[in-house]
Amino acid sequence: MKKSWIAIAAVLVLVLLAGCQQQATPEDRIKEYISHWNKGEFAEMYENYLNDGTKGAYDKAQFVDRQKKIQEDLNIENLEVTYTEPPEDAEWNEEEPADFPVQVKMDTVAGPVEFEQNMTLLHETHGEEENWFVEWNPSFIFPQLEAEDKIQIDRIQAARGEILDRNGLALAINGGGFNVGIVPEKFTDESKKAELAKLLGITVESIDQKLGQSWVKPELFVPIAKLARTDTETIDAAIKIPGVAAQNTPMREYPYGAALSHVTGYIGSITAEQLEERKDQGYTANDQIGRGGMEGVLEERLRGTDGLKIWIDKPAEGIEPITVAEKPVENGETVQLTIDAELQKKTYDAMKGEPGTSAALNPKTGETLALVSSPGFDPNEFMLGISGTRYKELEEDPKNPLFNRFRAAYAPGSTLKPVTAAIGMEAGTLKPAEGITINGKTWQKDASWGDYKVSRLHPEAPNPVDLNIALVYSDNIYFAQQALNMGNETFVAGLKEFGFGEEIEFPLGLKASQISNEGTIGSAGQLADTSFGQGQMLTNIVHLASMYEPFLTDGVMYKPTLLLDEEDSQVWKEGLVSAETAATLRTAMRNVVVDGYAQSANIAEADLAGKTGTAELKAAGEDRGKENGFFVTYDASNPEVLMAMMIENVEDNGGSDYVAGMAAQAFK
């Protein structure tokens, strides 16, 4: 009996406690609901917080799945939902709705979205639970959104920025080309497919695949391949085939083609690897991206930012779409280079497709006026998607048109001699007017050199050999003796003053010039070889041109630039030579052309001065190796352009004078 009374008492206590327990208020419930909302816990919101009317109007998929998909598709981040708190003394009547202003903020792929909506809670009984429940509709996703509406997103593609030369001439522009295609009902001769495929560099299977697309109809034009505007021969041949036509289409154009190919680079479809690297930068699998050259270097400046617009598509007729968020398109930047496109083309043409490189600088500013790697390739061909067969053809070409020669470094040969002379004169060991008696074709310091001897090409040079004669006759023995007189330490220090061993800050990375593999000179024989640009010495063509600037500026060498908006006349080195040394060298370099062995540069159109050079590339076991020919030159009467040029394998073409003639052609 006693136990029964205890049990009854316990039940009474529980009932009493339950009666005293405080019921959840509408504010408690909306606070919990918003907490789940901010966390994206839509299933929890649907199951435990929506009122009966909402669940009757919208099933779980319409509420949960739709909101999740919208968040993913629109890349919604930083969702922040808050509500306006009611007064502290607010009283709630279960017979009446409870309203709360709710503020919603978020970031979307098209920019921020912010709005306020009034949210209502109703007191209802769900099963055995009495509580406040949220009355919901799609306008809490975006204002004015209704159940049957669709959320759309439009991408407005940014125009890629163009690349222009210093005078505004187009180097890489958004121009046009041609879509070559077939009108099926007019293309009646099946045998012509093979002919067309061969013309376009594609397969018959790819033509059939495009003609078999679901949208194709007999009367419709079916694009098969794109061709550059300049490929007139292929276009003309294609449209002669009955049923084949060509239509204009927007396209990146490279008007100077091969002449500027290694400078401009080209654009191509983004690869899977590139897309993975740039997945946070807004790229898509359909985008094109800069490949090599300035197209690659300037990718961020040229690309621009696509515009994006999120909008609500109302199915009812006559109702205008509603914009939710919009990010305006930002077209890419137009960038001008310091390049003079016409000088570039003249220089490229003058090189006649021979393997080599050339750089032309403004000696008073350091601006790069021409930068040639010969032969080049057609960037239009690459931009359109080069076939494997064609790429292999270029890759196996013995002249290697895909290799960028102006970024590489080469033994400069005798073009180094004015620099060697300048170092000696500034050190006081070389007296320009003092002659040295040199007899014979070879010379060695003493018997310690063993079999090594310095050779000269013109033993007929008159004695005594002074600096002017030594430059006119390009006398290796004279410069070897001068280097030995000044000594290893002085010569190496002088070369470093001229920039050897330093990386040049340049948009298109250049290999640093080197004194030797170790950056030092280890023997008297190596010192002799290095004095006339052989041994292990290497220099890139831009630096080689830059090294002649002090002879035109009385001692100043400028940082070479390629972007027109970059500051001009940035001093890289100064005090390299005195005005007297510079004048002496200018006189001698003019005599090299007038009296020496650069007669092909002795033209009426310009008073060219400069220095030739031949670097022998002897392979082991050869009596005579391949030779690279050099010429560095400028117009002595109007030194606005300083040009360095190198042509490979000139041993059978007259040596460096062959190069001098090419450079002179550019000046004409």
TrEMBL record:
Domain Penicillin-binding protein dimerisation spans what residues?
A: 156-310
**Sorted UniProt keywords:** Membrane, Signal
Keyword S-adenosyl-L-methionine carried by entry: no
Query: Matching Pfam families, A to Z?
Result: MecA_N, PBP_dimer, Transpeptidase
Record domain Penicillin-binding protein transpeptidase: where: 357-663
Main localization, broad class: membrane
Q: In the record, which residues are listed under signal peptide?
A: 1-24
The subcellular localization recorded is: Membrane
Q: Domain of life here?
A: Bacteria
Domain (NTF2-like N-terminal transpeptidase) spans 25-148
- What InterPro entries does the database record attribute to this sequence? Beta-lactam/transpept, Beta-lactam/transpept-like, MecA_N, NTF2-like_dom_sf, PBP_dimer, PBP_dimer_sf, PCN-bd_Tpept
Question: Into which family does the record put it?
Answer: Belongs to the transpeptidase family.
Q: What is this protein called?
A: Penicillin-binding transpeptidase domain-containing protein
Q: Which organism is it from?
A: Planococcus chinensis
